[in-house]
Amino acid sequence: MSLRITFITAGRILRQLLNDHRTVGLILAVPALIIALISAIMDEAPQVFDKTGLILLAAFPFMLMFMITSITLLRERTGGTLERLMTTPTAKLDLVVGYALAFGAAAAAQTAVAATVAFAFLGLDTAGPAWAVFLICIVTSMLGMALGLFVSAFATTEFQAIQFMPVFVVPQLFLCGLIWPADQMAGWLQGVSDALPLTYAVKALTEVQLHPDVTADMWADLAVVLGAAVVATVLGAATLRRRTN
Amino acid sequence: MPPTPAVAVTDLVVDRGKRPVLKGVSTAIAAGTVTGLLGPSGSGKTTFIRAVVGTQKVKGGTVTVLGEPAGAKPLRGRVAYVTQDASIYRDLSVKANVAYFAALYGRGRREAMRAVESVGMGDHADKLAGNLSGGQKTRTSLACALVIEPEVLVLDEPTVGLDPVIREELWDRFRALAEGGATLLVSSHVMDEADRCDRLLLLREGRFIADDTPADLRAATGTANLEAAFLHLIRELEAN
Asked: Closest residue of B to A240, CA-based?
């Protein structure tokens, strides 16, 4: 792995993204608008919005990274550029970390806009510091990227890649505590919820919401999310093959 | 003793799925030459090329490039590969595409711009690759390989759909690169390009049916042009 090539790769991926003005606009504006919508829906219950809005702040970059990573990597695989890159000095890890840096920057920008809107204009309230929320959102977005990288190996078209959303993303969103608290689900479903990494992102956010100081529990939950992201990244990198049939 | 070949292929066998594509081919490509890989589509040209650049899984035999096994790490700065469909980023400009591949090899923007000019894309340097015509995409893809000044340049049908003037210029360019010491392997299904090669490999149904210079091929078959020479060889094989 070479740091120089990693940065060159990240720069190339960011430039591709920035050349697509419409996507940039959607990435930055949509989460803030939907959180605003949710806030208006929950107009009479700000304490419910404090919970839901906070979870959405992490859920959006998670979904975004899953989508853009699975589709752009699929394009690399099917467009011949991946094969070409594999004949250059680019190591697999250069490519994967390059994607993480570039899309991590996109996720950070998205979170910054959405969080600013939520905290400053929609009255979202947490006991803990905003930087902890930001950190959890970035780590969660890395998990989305890693899953997207992994599933791109199993899709042969962009249409299929999108179909993986209901398989890998939607169950995690339903079971993480976004639509219903995990401890009020059927017993067996709580077990499933505990096995899904996004649940730990929500637990970490709940810690920030309830405690003015950053707690050890939050760090532990965040470590689980990060660990899952690393495992998925390694599995995903293993699907990048120099030699194919 | 003859000098070590730039590319040496021995008994190469490749299956794709259950179908045998290359059925034990061998050849040696001398450094500083242009070798033409000819054959109908589906004959295994791309598979052979991918084996040389080390992206093809092989079943048997060996492929050695510049003394290393094909695809080995030290070769990644010395061998360049231009795929049949332009492998470039549609959402980057021509200049940004070439600059990216240049940067991977530690080369700067000025060298990238020179490569863009050299394929006649100077006027389109700021256009997004996705908006280019097929031939322009091919040339951009070629510039991404030329910019690294490789020792071995492997091109899969690089002149398909190109303007005759550009094609002429490209072949002059290939010749100049070979004279500078580079080794080129160029696949084509256009016979009129065959005469510009130092040596020809004719691939048919997974085997080489000819591995010779254009002049010797014509002489051996007693024909005036290469198209006729190849037909002669194929008929001879089928008669046996």
From this structure: B55
Q: Indicate whether A244 belongs to any domain.
A: no
CA distance A11 to chain B (A): 9
Q: Helices marked H in chain B — which ranges?
A: 45-53, 94-104, 109-118, 134-146, 164-179, 214-221, 226-239
Give DSSP secondary structure letters for B159-219: TTT--HHHHHHHHHHHHHHHHTT-EEEEEES-GGGGGGSSEEEEEETTEEEEEE-HHHHHH
Asked if the Cβ–Cβ distance from B87 to A80 is below 8 Å, we say: yes
Residue range B50-70: average pLDDT? 94
Q: Which of A219, A215, A221 is nearest to A176 (CA)?
A: A221
A208 within domain boundaries: yes
Decide if A15 and B101 are in contact by the 8 Å CB cutoff: no
Count CA atoms closer than 13 A to B163's CA, side-chain side: 10
Is this structure's pTM higher than 0.90? no
A127 occurs within a structural domain? yes
What interface predicted TM-score (ipTM) does this complex get? 0.88
Which chain A residue is nearest to residue B80, measuring alpha carbons?
Answer: A87
Chain A residues in contact with B81 by the CB 8 A cut-off are 84, 87
At A199, which helix (H) or strand (E)?
A: helix A197-210
What does the alpha-carbon distance between residue A8 and residue A23 come to, in Å, rounded to a whole number? 22
Q: State the Cα–Cα distance between residues A70 and A153, nearest whole angstrom.
A: 9
Is residue B73 within 8 A of residue B146, CB to CB? The reply is no
CB B140 within 8 A of CB B94: yes
The count of structural domains within chain A is 1
Place of tokens 């048997």: B60
**B16–A86: do the CB atoms touch at under 8 Å?**
no
- Splitting chain A (245 residues) into consecutive groups of 10 residues, what average pLDDT does each group show? 94 94 92 93 90 91 90 90 92 91 91 92 91 93 90 88 89 89 89 92 94 94 95 88 83
Which alpha helices (H) appear in A79-91, and where do they start and end?
Answer: 81-85
Distance, in Å, from the CA atom of B133 to the CA atom of B111, rounded to the nearest integer, reads: 24
Residue A192 lies in domain:
3-238
Residue A126 · residue A133 · CB < 8 Å: yes
User: Which candidate from B17, B54, B91 shows the least CB-CB separation from A19?
Assistant: B91
Considering only CA atoms, which of A29, A28, A62 is closest in space to residue A198? A62
Give B94-139 pLDDT, tens digit per residue: 999 999 999 999 999 999 999 999 888 999 999 999 999 888 999 9
The answer as to whether A245 is a domain residue is: no
Q: Are B83 and A80 in contact (CB under 8 A)?
A: yes
Tell me how far apart the alpha carbons of residues B84 and B224 are, in angstroms, rounded to a whole number: 30
A87:B101 CB<8 A = no
What is the distance between the alpha carbons of residues A113 and A187, in angstroms, rounded to a whole number? 37
Residues 6+ apart with CB under 8 A from A170: none
